[in-house]
Amino acid sequence: MRRLISTGSPFEKTAGYSRAVVDGDWCFVSGTTGYDYATMTMPPGVEEQTRNCLATIRAALMEAGFEMADVVRAHYYVTDRAYVDRVFPILGEAFGDIRPAATMVVCKLAKPEMKVEIEVTALKRDRAGG
């Protein structure tokens, strides 16, 4: 059964996407930037943007009935090579024990204030059996 998860961001309606889509045991979380969706503001630093990305992703996963530990794939996008070493420790805090398959890409993002974007795929596992 397919279920759509929303953060209430105006971007979702405007661009026609969901923050996450649950399909069976899978949860696909859209590329998530560093906005604070409560205030619709973007912090200036890549570190705080990364933390906001992860908080939004964590909340979407929880609403969908998943955990960060269910993440099996992650894509990270940064707008400057210099940001890679600044976000790695934050990503390590979030995913260090989970260790999903991951890719880091240096690229331009949709808006100039965006410095990082993260998308993940999660697979619900049997909690009792691992």
Automatic annotation (TrEMBL):
Q: Name one Pfam family in it.
A: Ribonuc_L-PSP
InterPro entries from the entry? RutC-like_sf, YjgF/YER057c/UK114
Q: What SUPFAM superfamilies does its record include?
A: YjgF-like
Superkingdom in the source lineage: Bacteria
Which PANTHER family would you find in this protein's record?
A: BLR7761 PROTEIN, YJGH FAMILY PROTEIN
Designated name of the protein = RidA family protein
